[in-house]
Design brief:
200 residues; mainly alpha; 2 domains; two-stranded antiparallel sheet; 8 helices
């Protein structure tokens, strides 16, 4: 998020609240937290930017046309961003499209559990299916999926199955994958650093 955007968002909320005669919904501290989270996400992508720049500068052949150069940049961004998504929780898997997102979520879960061999299948599938465009949502991946009635939850349910309580695989509010046993509920996220209430 560019410098000043968070300040403008805060001022707009203050103006709206004053016109309506209400208390602001968010405090200045909420907006400072948003700025810090945004800066952290940007810093998490520095390695992607460096790798793409290094590969572009090291490319043996120059692109034959401007369009070929743009295509090369997007392909390098796609490859490096997908690679980073397996251990960078600030990268929303949905930006790579509805086909790749569940594979990234499953790979993260398996890597977190120490089962890198099992994760390899999902990693490969994510690389094959991922799409990246100049717009968020992987070329409309998550928006298109929701228009088709497919959300991340419904895709995970197709992969893991369901019971009377719902999907056996689901995301906690912080985006960690949880997989529960058939017929049993989970009181909280199973990720060791999270423990958000999931009530499922």
């Amino acid at each position: 998020m560019q410098n000043g955007v968070v300040d403008v968002m805060y001022w707009l909320e203050l103006a709206k609240s004053e016109v309506r005669g209400e208390e602001p919904e968010h405090s200045r501290e909420d907006y400072l937290g948003l700025r810090l989270r945004s800066k952290r996400r940007e810093a998490g992508l520095d390695s992607v930017r460096r790798d793409v720049k290094k590969e572009l500068l090291g490319a043996a052949d120059s692109p034959a046309s401007a369009m070929e150069g743009i295509d090369l940049v997007w392909e390098l961004v796609r490859q490096r961003a997908v690679e980073a998504s397996f251990d960078n929780m600030d990268i929303d898997p949905r930006v790579f499209g509805r086909s790749a997102a569940p594979s990234i979520v499953m790979a993260r879960h398996l890597i977190d559990k120490g089962d890198t061999a099992a994760a390899e299948e999902y990693i490969q599938k994510a690389f094959e299916d991922a799409v990246v465009t100049g717009c968020g949502g992987g070329g409309g991946g998550s928006a298109k999926a929701e228009q088709d009635g497919e959300t991340m939850s419904s895709i995970l349910e197709k992969i893991a199955g369901s019971d009377e309580y719902g999907s056996l695989a689901f995301l906690c509010p912080d985006g960690h994958l949880n997989i529960r046993d058939y017929g049993k509920k989970l009181p909280a996220c199973q990720h060791e650093d999270c423990k958000a209430k999931v009530a499922c």
